[in-house]
Amino acid sequence: AEVTGDDALAEADARAEKELHGLRLRLLAAIVLTVPVVLMAMVPPLQFDYWGWVSLALTAPVFLWSGWPFHVSTAVNLKHRAVTMDTLITVGTTAAFLWSLAALLLGTAGHADMRHGFDFALDLGGHGDDLSDVYFEVVAGVITFVLLGRFLEKRSKRSAGAALRALLELGAKDVSVIRDGVESRIPIERLRVGDEFVVRPGETVAADGTVLEGRSAVDASMLTGESVPVEVEAGGTVAGGTVNESGRLLVSTDRVSRDTQLVRMAKLVEDAQSGKADVQRLADRVSAVFVPIAMAIAVVTFAAWLLLGFGFTAAMTSAVAVLIIACPCALGLATPTA
């Protein structure tokens, strides 16, 4: 059987719907779990005994499950020796998560009386090796914000695809074809190149073709956007999906199914949706330079703080801070949205 315009997008539609549903679940879970983590970290009166362990329990699903698409993307890119924004998201959140976990297991962050304040003192004597701070709110917050951007991107693409499918629905479902001098009505799927078909006033042109007989005005606004009907006559061409407004036309079929202008337009839109916008490609090119530089600065920061006499904990905390601050949250949210 021939593949119709609707069938051409059916597989892509199902795939997009599945991806959107998965992102929606990951985003909702991330939001529900992130809000209490951020509140506990940012509002000291909300901190209770062992609240750090509760933060760990809430952040782990966000980091491991909600952030899974970023981690997979990072692994795939590294396999091809490439870095993108996802790389920095994974590296930054992983560093913050593992450092916070170490603070709970090996430091004082897991003690019952541990509280987070907003003060930070530098230990010039080099004794600041007490692991007492956790950064779970950073891990959960970064992943949630960037995941929101991905979800908005997928949803906008899904909406565009729905509009395109509505356009394809306007195509003819059957056609009056003349074979051996006999006119009969057949499903559009059975139309073949070279068939002659009749288009009466008010009917939709079944396929791309050349006008053999008749003269009429054809409404091609669905394809071209022009509000004024186009006059066609013998020798002229018509496109499938346009509407015959006045006279009777006899058309010889030139293209059917996937080859029609309407379906090819649909394919172009589908390809555009599956690819990246120019601004996203620019962001990836910037990331290819920015990410290695950010990682190098984090390493230099760690080494510099050690050489200046600060403790290992302070040096590592500063290095992790560089990775987190460099994590392109705004870019990750704004670029796909745009």
Summarize the structure in words.
The chain has about 350 residues and is an alpha+beta fold. Helices cover about 55% and strands about 10% of the residues. It is built from ten helices and nine strands. The strands form two sheets. It has a six-stranded antiparallel β-sheet with strand order 2-1-3-9-4-7, with no helix packed on it. β1 and β2 form a beta hairpin. α3 crosses α4 and α5 runs antiparallel to α7. It starts with a helix and ends with a helix.
Helix content: 55-70%
Q: What is the radius of gyration?
A: 30 Å
Q: Write down the overall geometry.
A: elongated
Separation, N- and C-terminal Cα atoms: 40 Å
State the low-pLDDT regions, or none.
1-5, 120-128
Main beta sheet: strand number and arrangement?
6 strands, antiparallel
